[in-house]
Amino acid sequence: MEGVRVGHATLIRGARVRTGVTAVLPHGGNLFRDKVPGAVFVFNGFGKLAGSTQVEELGEIETPILLTSTLNVPRVADALLEYMLELPGNADVRSINPLVAETNDGWLNDIRGRHVGREEVFAAIREARSGPVEEGAVGAGTGTVAFGWKGGIGTSSRRAGDWTVGVLVQTNYGGDLHILGVPVGRLLRRSASDSKDGSVIVVIATDAPIDARNLKRLAARSALGLGRTGAAGSNGSGDYAIAFSTVRQPARLLPNDAMSPLFEAVIEATEEAVYNSLLCARTMEGNGRRVEALPVQRVLEILRDRKAIP
Q: Is residue 183, in this structure, part of any structural domain at all?
């Protein structure tokens, strides 16, 4: 989507470190001085989403959105504060609301080492680019696991009339994997009981002129996209959606009755972004464990056999 930038910093060190950080920048300027409308929707709140209460209260996002691993949230938030305070024009700023989300990559990663810090945060923001996004086991998705397979970062987008809805996911959750309605997990003999807990972060961008209230409604619909993939929504899941509009001062907001095409777009884009996070990931060993990548060719055979794809 025009103006939106994404960057990763990936940490793969030795036999135990498999982690990173992903940065989503709603635009390339000073977000504190040029805030964007934003909203947060909580599916299940067993997670750590720093900065969410101010977004809920004011309906604005004033920093890049950073994704990382659970125990790195305070370190990443501190580095993000440093980045924002150093920006030209922010010399007199005394309060900034860093927005940092996480999933737990402790299965493949030495999570207690808290290896993501200032260097990685600054690198992810500095390297953020518009256009195609690197997917799979990169950035905040380096050490994640989804449905018992290697998870990661996935993206997708849809057109909704004159508008675009883009979605980025950090998948680290479980359930009964379905792809295009086909119970792929069971057919691969990967039982749903293998992995139900876990978390997912969904970041939604749109160029539609909508306010925080309708952004929250948009974010809520992404849960339907997760449901299509077979998400368990378990007690131990931390599932959040963060939505923003790139239109900062619209001359006219979209009315409520214009939202339905956007709802449909975010459902489809979320579903596909999850698939992409799995299909683009690679088998990874770390922290004394091994997690296999989803066997793409076998999945394609299953989908063709079930006539889900040509």
A: yes
Q: d(Cα 146, Cα 237) in Å, to the nearest integer?
A: 12
Return the pLDDT at 193.
Answer: 44
What range defines the domain where residue 288 resides?
A: 5-305
Cβ count near 251 (within 10 Å): 6
Q: Which residues lie closer than 8 Å to 32 by C-beta, 6 or more apart?
A: 62, 63, 84, 87, 90, 93, 96
| Token pair belonging to 127 | 């390297």
Q: Which residues of the chain have pLDDT under 70?
A: 190-195
CATH of the domain at 76: 3.60.70.12
Q: What is the pLDDT of residue 15?
A: 98
Q: How many domains does the chain have?
A: 1
pLDDT of residue 192: 45
* Active site residues per annotation: 199, 237, 239
In a domain, 310, yes or no: no
Q: What is the pLDDT of residues 65-78, one digit of tens each?
A: 999 999 999 999 99
CB neighbours of 295 closer than 8 A, spacing ≥ 6? Answer: 188
